[in-house]
Amino acid sequence: MKNIFETLKHYYGYDAFRPGQQELIEAILKGEDVLGVMPTGGGKSLCYQIPAIAMDGLTLVISPLISLMKDQVDALQTMGVRAAYINSQLSYTDQQMIMEEASRGELDLLYVSPERLGNHQFMSYASGWNLDLIAVDEAHCVSQWGHDFRPSYQRIPELMAVLPSRPVFAAFTATATKIVQEDMIDQLRLNDPFKHIASFDRPNLYFSVVKPKKKAAELLKIIDKKESSIIYCNTRKNVDKVYSTLMKKGYPVTYYHAGISSDERTRHQEEFLYDRKPIMVATNAFGMGIDKSNVRNVIHYNMPLDMESYYQEAGRAGRDGAPSEAILFYSAQDIITNTMLIEQGNSPYARQNLNAMITYCKTGDCLRKSILKYFDQKVQWQACDYCSNCDGESVITDITVESQKILSCIYRMKQTYGTGLITDVLRGKNTKRIQQLGFDELSTHGIMSEYTDGDIKDMIAIMLSEGYLQLSGDSYPIIKFTQQTNDLLQAKVTLSIRKQLKQDSAPKQKTVE
Ligand code: ADP
């Protein structure tokens, strides 16, 4: 058996390991289970490929992305490693042939998707293999606490049950909070694993949160024809809208979402990758497995549903280490839309995840610190001096009294209406509908006439995110009280809002130490 440094040089041509790789590889070779949490592009694949090459038996790699599987196997075969994959795109005969090869001990690595573990024939073959290692890629998918739960990952322990002896288990992910990490260890039944958790800090990324009055206008201020940028939108409709705005203004832009044909997707992706069209407008369907190092801006046109997705997407900026920006646009409408979305779904954790996202948008604290704290990483400093909050662009205002006015209006409207009508009543509008319903007679009619619609909607959005209000109703969302509402009405708690002083997301200076 070659030592691991020789393997690194011989097969990959690299001279040194990246942080964590050597420790993870050595632990696996000692027979220990491992958990590797490293950023995308950090070099996770090598951590199981080198042991796979070094060990006698087979390494089974469980990976969710069929396209990546093929790329990895092609690369390994080119290096002279005996690797293969099985997925539904292969013919039955080919699948059969590869399983036979594995049975004859002719493979070092075999890639399969987690769904494959539901196939009886596969499981019966697998029970006869000489398996040294099972490597689980994107292992956070096993956890319901994560942002990308896939039930098929829970089949992995079933595989363990059919094996005559337990191989080493190695789990890898790019994004995980402590809760997800613990859950991954439990769900995958890792045995007191050696852990390597890389730092999540990205010092070359300038983080900013902006609440633009007009998102399209703000976007045009930021975006540069010569720089590569990704603009993430929450819906295909918004992708189309933003794309055509930029198109009309002559920007070199392309787009991507699940609604276009796979040929088009490939073409658009390539236009972006090779900088023929350096600006990409996309839904979150775009990005997994994309390795473009010179992306200067990742702009979220809408607020994502959770911090893990946000950080993963934002992290696609500045892979080359050069100064880059992660800019998040949000609006009260985003908070309302996202709240509705998660209330329609049935994930018990989505609410918590969304609240963390909203807190990130509203915080007056250092944005980098907020992110790292969310990922349970130790932070030694108070301010990073390289995010929009550290630039001192925002102030915090107490809105306890305003929120009490809103609550008393909702109460008087019998908790049966949505944001629009509540706002109109508070501002003292005299529409036909308001008169018909007699809301112009309420004592709360016009008690917030000095505020704009946007101000009031912001406050309602914050009350929703903090759990002082909730949305219900099937055909259109109705705003109702919660068990916590009384605390705010009785001023047992206070509520505050962060306001930006200037609607400009550009950093003051773009230097990285
Ligand atoms: P991840 O799976 O963590 O996203 P990959 O395993 O795909 O990352 O690695 C990203 C890139 O870094 C690949 O091109 C890989 O060959 C390269 N790489 C990995 N380890 C090293 C190393 N020790 N030295 C140089 N390049 C490396």
UniProtKB/TrEMBL annotation:
The keyword DNA-binding applies. GO terms for biological process: DNA recombination; DNA repair; DNA replication; SOS response. GO terms for cellular component: bacterial nucleoid; cytoplasm; replisome. The keyword Hydrolase applies. It comes from the Bacteria. Residues 25-194 form the Helicase ATP-binding domain. Coiled coil: none annotated. One of its GO terms (molecular function) is DNA binding. Keywords: ATP-binding, DNA damage, DNA recombination, DNA repair, DNA-binding, Helicase, Hydrolase, Isomerase, Metal-binding, Nucleotide-binding, Zinc. Its EC number is 5.6.2.4. Residues 215-362 form the Helicase C-terminal domain. Its cofactor is Mg(2+); Zn(2+). Belongs to the helicase family. RecQ subfamily. This is DNA helicase RecQ. The chain holds residues 1 to 513 of 724 of the full protein.
